[in-house]
Design brief:
25% strand, five-stranded mixed beta barrel, 17 helices, eight-stranded mixed beta sheet, alpha+beta
């Protein structure tokens, strides 16, 4: 037996020098000029067939790349090759020849050679395709997902899935190098109130009871810390019954789950920053990556960017300009300010946006967003502001706004007024639209940051009660003393997010490891202690037997891959995604089950009336 090739992870052997492997001696990305005049065997898919004046060219594709194969009319298999169709799977035997200088394709690793076909066998025929594999035409989602096996053959998405694997390998290696050990946690577990709906699994052995698929390995990773494992990580599948979005898959997703013992918040930052920075540098194709992630308090992020997921590629920062409108001639704002001291006016600068046409477009956009409009001033020169607001507040106030925001001739500024908690998201959307429309974003970078000091609690307007705003297992800043003596809505937690280019990559926290603090926090959020014991009894019992201070985070792998692939939808970086209605169109899930299966699980369907 003779070894003949070991590139691209493939190893080939020949039984004897004259007897080739049944399917291939090389991949479709291996052959170069050094293989000239060698007899070879390739197998793959017919990517494209071209007829050039009697010469037939077959671009043969496999997982690794493309090789051009050629047959002339004298070839014994010329008629068979004429009958080939796109996506047939074939075996081709032939001799490697150098291409003519003017026929070299520098974009292919095999672009200097071609195979003169001597023999061919069809290994698998293909019906007429519902969507082409050659090219990158856009096709409706239902066609793509129903035929995902074909969609995955297309170059862009195929490369995305390969890159996803490489990114996960890199993340895993970097975590191990950082002293973390990978452990697996259960998939079938108990239902717990963690902010989203659970996927439930009925128990056959325990009638009327249900398992839940984990929304995250949150409790298990904390229990591992309590059990003394110190540094845990896992490429963890998570399951949440949520509506789909472009940056969130319905049903399931993966995260780089990690937890550390005997740490403070900064220790977690120092552990995970090099991992993420390294991955973005490794796969970011030369784009700049933030060296040290800035720490931005939640309140500051909302005030400057109108979002807790700021895109720092956008240079626009909002400012409070309430004082310039208080008592002014612009009665719409001045009246609100006088009536309620909590009312604020925020300014959204628009560098280079100083034209009436742009300001009118922004005003129309605001109205489509359900707002009455979007007030503005634009500056013709540094001392002259124009627009209805400028006329109403006067030259002095208009100049004061310009000076505060450091605006120049050709710039504009837009204003929102009211209670910040009600208008901040709209103001943030306006900031984003201005940055995109005026092409202000520095797109040649991955801008990462930490958002810190999230509120521990928030007011649930629907249920008229205080509830957790983030993670119920987080340590409140100030500990038990703060919970007992301060207004819950003023207490921050040791909670933090990582944000990149406007996408939240992960949430994390320093955990509450003391049972008395946990009980008090859940009491403030309105949870009965019996519910706490039922849902989190295992965690509480563990805390009572010596729990170390610990914390962690869980960056979302799907979003990391999406950013590194330059995609805007997670569907493009997931091998077998569901559609927007949480359906797997290829496998037919969710599907009905038999009456016998239902009886075994002691359940019956109670369907809504049509």
């Amino acid at each position: 037996m003779r070894f003949v090739a070991a590139q691209y992870g493939m190893i080939f052997f020949e039984q004897e020098q004259t007897q080739m492997h049944p399917y291939r001696t090389h991949t479709c990305a291996q052959l170069t000029l050094k293989d000239k005049e060698q007899k070879v065997r390739l197998s793959g898919w017919v990517h494209r067939i071209r007829d050039h004046g009697g010469l037939l060219f077959v671009d043969l594709r496999d997982h690794y790349g493309l090789t051009q194969c050629v047959a002339d009319p004298d070839s014994p298999v010329f008629a068979q090759i004429e009958a080939l169709k796109a996506e047939y799977v074939v075996r081709i035997d032939g001799v490697v020849k150098a291409r003519d200088a003017d026929a070299i394709n520098s974009k292919l690793s095999t672009g200097e050679v071609e195979i003169f076909i001597q023999d061919m066998e069809v290994l698998g025929k293909a019906k007429e395709l519902p969507l082409p594999v050659f090219g990158e035409q856009e096709y409706p989602e239902d066609i793509r997902l129903t035929n995902r096996f074909l969609d995955l053959r297309r170059e862009r998405i195929h490369n995305n899935i390969v890159l996803r694997s490489k990114i996960i390998t890199s993340l895993r290696n970097r975590m191990i190098e950082g002293g973390f050990t990978e452990y697996q946690t259960p998939i079938l577990t108990a239902s717990s109130p963690e902010g989203a709906r659970d996927f439930l699994v009925p128990s056959r052995l325990h009638p009327g009871k249900f398992y839940a698929l984990p929304q995250a390995p949150q409790q298990f990773k904390q229990l591992l810390m309590i059990a003394g494992f110190d540094r845990y990580f896992q490429i963890a599948p998570c399951f949440r019954d949520e509506d789909a979005r472009a940056d969130r898959s319905p049903g399931e997703f993966y995260q780089l789950d990690m937890e550390m013992s005997f740490v403070e918040q900064e220790d977690v930052f120092q552990a995970i920053e090099p991992v993420l920075r390294g991955v973005f540098e490794e796969f970011g194709e030369g784009k700049r990556v933030t060296r040290t992630f800035p720490r931005i308090p939640y309140a500051e992020s909302m005030r400057k960017y109108g979002s807790d997921k700021p895109d720092l590629r956008n240079p626009i920062e909002m400012e409070d300009v309430t004082e310039h409108f208080a008592g002014s001639g612009f009665k719409i704002f001045a009246g609100q300010i006088a009536a309620d001291p909590k009312v604020r006016v925020w300014a959204v600068p628009a560098p280079t946006g100083g034209s009436r046409a742009f300001c009118d477009r922004m005003n129309s956009w605001a109205q489509k967003e359900g707002q009455p409009g979007l007030g503005y001033i634009f500056y013709r020169d540094e001392n002259e502001g124009a627009g209805p607001i400028a006329k109403n507040i006067g030259v002095e106030r208009t100049e004061a706004i310009r000076a505060q925001l450091d605006l120049k001739a050709g710039d504009a500024v837009f204003f929102v007024c009211g209670l910040p908690q009600k208008f901040s998201s709209f103001a943030g959307a306006a900031r984003t639209k201005i940055g995109v429309d005026l092409k202000l974003l520095d797109e040649d970078q991955f801008a990462l940051c930490w958002i810190v000091d999230f509120p521990m609690f928030e007011w649930d307007e629907e249920n008229k009660k205080v509830d957790f705003s983030h993670n119920p297992f987080s340590m409140p800043q100030g500990g038990l003393e703060a919970l007992e003596n301060e207004d819950p809505l003023t207490i921050n937690a040791y909670q933090y997010d990582i944000v990149c280019n406007g996408f939240e990559l992960s949430s994390g926290a320093i955990r509450n490891h003391r049972p008395e603090i946990m009980r008090k926090a859940f009491e403030i959020a309105g949870y009965d202690m019996a519910v706490l014991e039922e849902k989190f009894g295992g965690m509480l019992r563990a805390m009572e037997y010596g729990a170390p201070p610990h914390g962690g985070i869980a960056p979302g792998i799907d979003r990391i891959v999406m950013l590194l692939c330059g995609e805007e939808n997670l569907r493009e970086v997931t091998a077998f995604p569901m559609n927007q209605q949480a359906e797997d169109l290829l496998m037919g899930a969710p599907s009905a089950v038999s009456a016998q299966q239902m009886r075994e699980l002691h359940i019956r369907a109670n369907l809504p009336k049509a």
